[in-house]
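User: Second chain of the day. Same drill as before.
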Amino acid sequence: MFQFIFRFQRRLIPIFALAALFVGFASRPVFAASPILPLKEVTPGMAGECRTVFQGTKIETFRFRVEGVGWDDVGPGRDTIWCRMLDDPTGSMVVAAGMSGSPCYVDGKLMGALAYGWSFNKEPLFGVQPIESMMDVPKDYGGLAGAKGSDRSISGGDGNEGAGGGTGWSMMSMGNVLGKLLRRPPETELPLPIQISRLHPRLARLIMPTWKKDGLTAMEAVGGTSRKTFRAELVPGAAAAGVLARGDFSATATGTLTWRDGDQVLAFGHPFTGLGKVNIPLAESEIIAVVSSYEHSFKMSNTGQIVGTLTDDRISAVAGKVGPKPRMIPLSMKVKYPTAEKEFHFEMADEKMFAPRVFEAGVLNFLAEVMERSGDATVRLTGTIHLKDHPPVTLKRLVSGEDFAWVADLAADTGDEINALYLNDLVKFQIESIDVKAEVDPTYRHWKIEELEVFPKEAHPGETVEGWVALRPPRDQRRTVPFKIKIPEETRPGDLEIRVSDSHGADEMEGRFMGFAVNKPHSADELIRILNERHESNKLYFYAVQDSPGYVLRNQRMPSLPGSIRELLDDEPGRREVQPIHEAHVVKMARELDGTVEGRKSFKITIK
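Assistant: Same format as last time:
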């Protein structure tokens, strides 16, 4: 299991929390918010107490003293109240990850939420996010209407207008998003605290660098999904968890509830994703123990039932509601090995930042679990992404490698289709379910294109040329693949180049990048078609190519255009939708192999 942490300037490490809402009583109690202590009334020397859970579900307290206020401490207009822990509830005077959101009171008034601490800290100091800053959740986004005792209006928000709805979203790392929100350089890393259970050790080095690009940094942690039922009234100070995946693969973030008024809650004292509107399930949580460490102390936890939803995620707070449970995306996977077959099932949150990564990690984890007996493998991955009111998206992959090297190839692009569905600006797709099947052959089958031969070297339109491609495997004799190409009747006299290529070369020749069209699709159906027509790594792609000026218009190749038409397209107002090309593919065909293929070769003949 792994846990992710924020890295702020001055090496501040936020100690995260997620608020969960518990609904299960026959008669639901009414929760009223505590009065608050405005920041302007906070002075050094004030004494108070924080509430949190150190073991089980029992809320305990520890005393603190206010040391002072750091103005603009974690960003412009983002003040921090610095406090010193006076009690030693853990036996080692530490502030641990999972305590974030713990409410801090002075004379019965809520001052804010425990939110920040340091790595390698010798002093029991911690930062508190003022409750007034936390209540700057915009009302327009379904946030809070106000709070008792506050003389500060709710307005403005955090400058983050959210990214829901699927429009206007561009592919960028979460570090860039949050960096802009906090007015820091985009390269500032702002990871998140996520505990991943049942993750195969071999996958950590491969998966986590990919997650890090989206602002996620891993550290080892402990916890899981509880097999026993427990009840925890979710009042300020109670432990709770945000659920990104549950089932045979789970990913959760555990912390503490800060504030509750009826069915509305606040937590964290800092962002979870920073994306504005979110749709993350909330669950009960129990604490196993607090693990003390000079580098990073944390709470070991178990996650219980889903009981609510996180709805707003802003710089200074996360807001949610009691009761409503968001839909999750069910995933079923069958892994077939020569001597065994296993099935795996889990659900993942319908959230664009995490769904592609969770899907990728879950699928690879199941494969690695089955592959314990052999590191070499050729894996054929197929599947279907079922969409509401749209045709399905198909998944097709074949990878091969030695000593688990195949995992890296799968990790490189397993979540691409889901990413494209979430981040397009055409329509907000609803993924209803995902079915995946993996067939594992414990042998390494990879072919490199070594040589291409074509004969005769001169031909006429309508005639057929023949040839062969020489392929070299890693530890065996090379093989040849014969082919025939019929020259189309309309082929012009002159040079004709015969090319053979792997999937990456085919992408380049057809104006694609990482398997997707360079030009933006103009409809949902066109996007689905592009996703379903990805070139496959186990195929040889043959092309017969002639020089011919033309254009790609809305993902359609238009070679050999008359000069008058080219002039019109040059003057096209939407010129960015038109891309010039300089060759025509007069023939395209593919041959499937029993392993992956790599490389490209070309051979020129003359058309009479």
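The CA atoms of residues 564 and 570 lie 10 Å apart.

User: Great, on to the next one.
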